[in-house]
Write a structure and sequence with these properties.
- This protein folds into two domains: 74 residues, no CATH class; 278 residues, TIM Barrel (Alpha-Beta Barrel).
- 42% of the residues lie in helices and 13% in strands.
- It contains 13 helices and twelve strands.
- Strands 1, 2, 3, 4, 5, 6, 7, 8, 9 and 12 form a ten-stranded parallel sheet that branches.
- Helix 2 packs across helix 3 and helix 9 packs parallel to helix 10.
- The protein is globular and about 55 Å long.
- The structure holds iron/sulfur cluster.
- InterPro entries: Aldolase_TIM, BATS_dom, Biotin_synth/BioAB, Biotin_synthase, Elp3/MiaA/NifB-like_rSAM, rSAM, rSAM_sf.
- This is biotin synthase.
């Protein structure tokens, strides 16, 4: 029945919304309905005010979930979920003090620092990831920045070329980069560069003191100017207030162009880090964050990222319904445990999800045609 309502709403986003849940506080429910309608009719916008996003975020949860789903179904092929693999190609020993990170050399987490992995090992991992259905291969190095790492950087350029040549999207997360390095990565064929903002500008100094929010925005600018897609999101469960979650989404949604990809992570509290005792994030918090991200950045890939291992299949199903359309596959997510491969395959089958094919360049993804959307909705 709910699906029938959704199918109907595709034709008339105005017809549902606040009225469908009359017991909800009218003003908040109306905010999510209006924002969703505008996202569907007008596409992405960068002029969001923070109170506007706060109003969407504060909507009664079922309204928010419903409107996130509505945007998702209108803007994306909503059954498609991209599988990405994230490999730590240079683990541990990082000089930064990110409070959540077991790879910081400042915390005693028992993690052994390693050198940059060699080409054979990385290419083997990429082939395995491709065979397992991943269409994006992400390489993460625990560095503050790549400046002054010429030899390693040149090796990474080589890895990017090789993996792109295998027909996969390639992403790197190597810390701060300069303009010149972004241009070289672009030339090598890099699809996307990940650099998360983590949280709001206000809460950021509680989490990291060794580089500033503006340093991060600067790296994003270099990536954008080089013509590489931006992958940037954050982590919830760091002890931040809900206003900080809204602040993060507001910064991302008011960048000159929305990130192509927005990872939403739930903190995985690792023993030995300053955040080891943080309370686990609840599924409702993830859904609220994902649905708001989907409404305010309608075209972005919203990635259900770290912390997924703690969520059951029905809980993940709600995240996909709210607007998530990507997961990380593989045993590990950098250094922390990730979901089991077979369990993910079973989940795709049960939920009727379809692995998303890779897409290259920065061409705009074509939205599904109206007929295709109706067929998808009708067959659910
Ligand atoms: S920069 Fe990256 S690897 Fe280094 S401590 Fe921060 S999150 Fe960890």
């Amino acid at each position: 029945m709910a699906m029938m309502l959704l199918a109907r709403s595709l034709r008339s986003p105005l017809a549902v919304g606040a009225a469908a849940f009359s017991s909800a506080p009218a003003a908040s429910a109306a905010a999510a309905a209006a924002a969703a309608e505008r996202a569907i009719l007008d596409g992405p916008r960068n002029d969001w005010s923070r109170p506007e996003i706060q109003a969407v975020y504060d909507s009664p949860l079922l309204d928010l979930l419903f409107h996130g789903a509505q945007v998702h179904r209108n803007v994306h092929k909503f059954r498609e979920v991209q599988q990405c693999t994230l490999l730590s190609i240079k683990t541990g020993g990082c000089s930064e003090d990110c409070s959540y990170c077991p790879q910081s050399s400042r915390y005693n987490t028992g993690l052994k620092a390693q050198k940059l992995m060699n080409k054979d090992a990385i290419l083997e991992a990429a082939i395995k990831a491709k065979e397992a259905g991943s269409t994006r291969f992400c390489m993460g190095a625990a560095w503050r920045e790549t400046i002054g790492r010429k030899t390693n950087f040149n090796q990474i350029l080589e890895y990017v070329k090789e993996i792109r040549g295998m027909g996969m999207e390639v992403c790197c997360t190597l810390g701060m980069i300069e303009k010149q390095q972004a241009e070289e990565l672009k030339k090598a064929g890099l699809t996307a560069y990940n650099h998360n903002l983590d949280t709001s500008r206000e809460y950021y100094p509680n989490i990291i003191t060794t580089r500033s929010y503006d340093d991060r925005l600067q790296t994003l600018q270099h990536v954008r100017e080089a013509g590489i897609s931006i992958c940037s999101g954050g982590i919830i469960g760091l002890g931040e207030a809900e206003e900080d979650r809204v602040g993060l989404l507001h910064t991302l949604a008011t960048l000159p162009t929305h990130p192509e990809s927005v990872p939403i992570n739930a903190l995985v509290a690792v023993k030995g880090t300053p955040l080891e005792d943080q309370k686990p994030v609840e599924i409702w918090e993830m859904i609220r964050m994902i649905a708001t991200a989907r409404i305010v950045m309608p075209k972005a890939m919203v990635r259900l990222s770290a912390g997924r291992v703690r969520f059951s299949m029905p809980e993940q199903a709600l995240c996909f319904l709210a607007g998530a359309n990507s997961i990380f596959a593989g045993e590990k997510l950098l250094t922390t445990a990730n979901n089991d491969f077979d369990a993910d395959q079973a989940m795709f089958k049960i939920l009727g999800l379809i692995p998303k094919a890779p897409s290259f360049g920065n061409e705009e993804e074509a939205a599904p045609a109206d007929t295709e959307r109706s067929e998808q909705a009708a067959s659910m």
